[in-house]
Design a protein that fits this description.
The complex is a heterodimer of chains A (about 250) and B (about 425). Chain A has about 250 residues and is of the alpha/beta class. Chain A contains eight helices and six strands, in the order ααβαβααβαβαββα. Helices cover about 25% and strands about 10% of the residues of chain A. In chain A, strands 2-3-1-4-5-6 form a six-stranded mixed beta sheet. The radius of gyration of chain A is 18 Å and the shape is globular. Chain B has about 425 residues and is of the alpha+beta class. In chain B, the strands form six sheets. Chain B has a five-stranded antiparallel beta sheet with strand order 6-5-19-20-21. In chain B, strands 1-4-22-7 form a four-stranded mixed beta sheet. In chain B, strands 9-8-13-14 form a four-stranded parallel beta sheet, covered by helices on one side. In chain B, a hairpin with a 2-residue loop joins β2 and β3. The model of chain B has no long low-confidence stretch (mean pLDDT about 90). The chains are: A alpha/beta (about 250), B alpha+beta (about 425). The interface between A and B is large, with 56 and 78 residues.
Amino acid sequence: MNREQGLLIWAPKLSPWGAWTKPVLFSFMSDPLPQQVALTDTRSKFVASRETAILVELPGTETVVTGLQLASSGYQPIPLFNASPYALDSSSFGTGELPALVDVMSIMRALERYTEYLNSMNLPDSAPPAFLLDANRSKGPLFPPAEVFDNRSIVRASDLPSGELLNQAGIRRVILLRTTDRLSRDLHPIVWSWHNFGLQIQIQHYAEEWDPQDYQIEHRNMFVVLFEKVLMWVSFRTNSIGSFGRTIHSAGG
Amino acid sequence: LIGESRQWLSRNVEPACRLRGDRADVRDRIALGKPLPDEVLGHIERVLNLNHAKWDTHVGDGRVLSAEPLLIREDEWRLLCALAETAAQELVAAEREIALKKDIQKLIGLPRRLQNLLQDVESGSDIRTFRFDFHPTATGWVISEVNSDVPGGFGEASFLPSLYKEFTDATPLPKVPLDLWGEVMQSHLSGGTIAFLYAPGFLEDEQVVRVLARELRERGFNTRLIQSPFALKWNNSCAVFRSDRTKVDGVVRFYQAEWLSQLPSWSGWKNLFGLTYGTHVVNPTISAISESKRLRLCLHCVSTRTDTFQLLLPECREPSDIVGLPKDDWVLKATYSNTGDDVHLGTDISSSDWSGLLAKASRQREGWVAQRRFETLSLPSIAGSLKPCVGVFVIGGQATGAYVRLSRTQLTNGYALEAPLFIMKPKEHQ
């Protein structure tokens, strides 16, 4: 199986959610993909509903494994890992490589190895989405040492479907599957916008029995929002669409 | 200043007539080509994703890859090239003059910490890249801005034409920006190790530097990506990597000059902007001058001729000078509007928001400029009416290729579709 086939399994053409899969890690994968393995822990405690989307935010490979467990409950896992695993390209990876600040490599290897397993599930095109995020994506010191590859990333509204689109697709509820109650700085405005669009937001703690509870999104005061914006601006500035980078300059007259 | 482009322009066209006069309507000189089937477009998207470090082909709720290429008549393309080359020559000359005039640097809103550094820069690097964003209007071509500090779009302008080529009978442009950039770099730096500096967390910037780095690797250079100027250690204007003391022969700066100037001094960012003898830095500090959206306001203060640039760019005024004028006629732009958040069209916001913004811009004079609004012509498309923006590259003084975006709104931002540019076949002129 080659990389393109692998990408198409994690981003199915006919699924309404496949287009959101981030292709970054697939471009760094071995081609052909390495030996495939099956998931050993296939217990699934999740209950699928066509009206429910799940947003998984767990550290590293736990997110991928949970995504596969969700797949066995009928969810289509959609990887949203938007960072490079290493500084060089796949043809020159090897000597002289600096260690990455965020371990994205293990996530990539997990995606590689479980591709055939996901394919074997034959998920229907109508499967509801389980969006997969790395909880460690933006962790690290404000000024990392020179000897690391700074591959931190953030998630923005443009990286996920809008509330309008989720609603049009019949999604009425989003369950946040995570280890803590407090939403990360970058995720808060996205969940807030879904909530404002009328979607029900619930939380399910990882490692606890499946029993999603309504989630009260804290309304942060102006000073906290301002402070967090400054923090994010210092670390990650955004472009006109609130996405990564800013090379697509706006031009208007 | 009188270069080949200016001669070509004077020989072939009367710029004022072409731009503003009776031949101004370019509607019959550009068009969208036949749409690619969805299956083909999907395949192209995956090739870009997997082989060309182009990862942002889906933004928000939709794909940003256009099914239709943009077609342009050959004489019109030559005109754009000549205009862009001439404007680039003018800007290079104007920058050199302004580099010696601190009062003008202040007027154009150049960050103070950069003003002090410009005093030491004689002429800057010869390796310069500009991208002029051309828009077709009812009165001819207009540029909304020039991106000269860290212009992007190399990958899109270079790979899209080759990927769409077999599905259209139009003619590709003779040379793509990536090839020319590689040639120019190779002619200035015979080899060695090049560091590519970009801001961490900016995947869109990382996409660009990965494409540029690959181009140099294929030409025999060693390359490394770095996310902080602190990764370099400088000694007598020569840099080594702090991690393993490897000598650095060149630094490709894809980190906005005004952002670097906000970093703490210990990061060593100033070393990138001084005179560097052993380590070549691309782009030089001086490029921050033409990146300023306020530059147009001050060009009457310099002796350098900038007729072409001024003719192409809409009228600019101090924000305080447009108080009381109809808001629909104006756009407010931040001096270094790297984000679309800082480009505000009067037509798109309420009167009260406009008043608040105008008051803020009038108070922070050096941070803003008012630009007269223009209306980009719309082209019929399968995706609805689309407004083209043709970003013509000028690299080392030579125009080559374009980063084309097709926008549903007057503002061209990250939601705009991206398309390749081809030369129309003669029969398509009709």
